[in-house]
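Chapter summary example: a protein plus zinc ion.
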Amino acid sequence: MLILGLETSCDETGVALYDTDRGLLAHALFSQIDIHVEYGGVVPELASRDHVRKTLPLLEEVMTEAGVTAKDIDGVAYTAGPGLVGALMVGATLARSLAWGWGVPALGVHHMEGHLLAPMLEEKHPEFPFVALLVSGGHTQLVRVDGIGEYKLLGESLDDAAGEAFDKVAKMLGLPYPGGPQVAKLAAEGDSDRFDFPRPMVNRPGLDFSFSGLKTFTLNTVDDCKIDGVLAPQDRADIARAFEDAVVSTLTIKCRRALKQEGLKTLVMAGGVSANLSLRAALKEALAKERAEVFYPAPQFCTDNGAMIAYAGAQRLAAGQADDDGAAVRPRWPM
Ligand code: KG4
Ligand code: ZN
């Protein structure tokens, strides 16, 4: 089955074609970073408008690249939520219209299921069952995955998501949106031994997270270090490093705990924060000691993209799971 996937939940327009026999045929992405950067974050109305502008040109691009025509496409999958309502509606209406026009089934996919399954796009991909760490701008979750659609939530953040904390710390340090990669870059120049930041909730049993206290601790440290309202360059780098170290070690501790609890040896990491190189290195090292293995998507499929939606949709559409929800979207949607 050849499936078209559309992702428009936030600030990236992603379009991809996935074939259940031949794999990923083509994918294209347009990032709206330049549109939102002057506002310091995503402006929902501007995001929706730009999805309207970009989705069809990207669709033409991937169809040309893959050498397919409309009659070759067997189904359309799109992100139905969670995300920004207007942005989601652009993808949903377009996907439903195309599917109706082409006479093929359509399916609304959960954005986090897309992230969760993104490592399956790699040649060396994990086998079920595994534990997934989903770390994005809106979610921090540990999920046991027994198969497509067989998900058990093991733990999640009780307040801010890890990516959100990265973005807020970036603002405190005067770094531009999107903050995560900028904090990571600055942290690489920082000294690990300078500050000792808390590792939230690691001494309590369970698999939940909390990042809001760490954020406040970071803000207090920033205020303490400022001289005449200015933070010295080395202080900024050392704070970024201390914050990143705290997030990385908290996530690592909880991942090991989750694998132990579930008796599993495979961890999958996905979502924007899984692009973080310190987190990748720490997990790889920690799991190697326990003969467990960690899988993650290629960097281009860690953040939002159409390929993960095409893949998730293809698995479900191939299993006959089309839906007829109309173009309804679900801005808040538990997985
Ligand atoms: O998955 P994603 O693209 O969008 C959501 O579904 O939220 O994740 C975006 C989040 C942002 O918070 C961004 O700052 C964070 O992922 N992020 C990173 C890195 N790259 C992206 N955080 C830390 N280190 C990175 N290298
Ligand atoms: Zn995402």
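Key point: Residues 133 and 142 are 5 Å apart (CA to CA).
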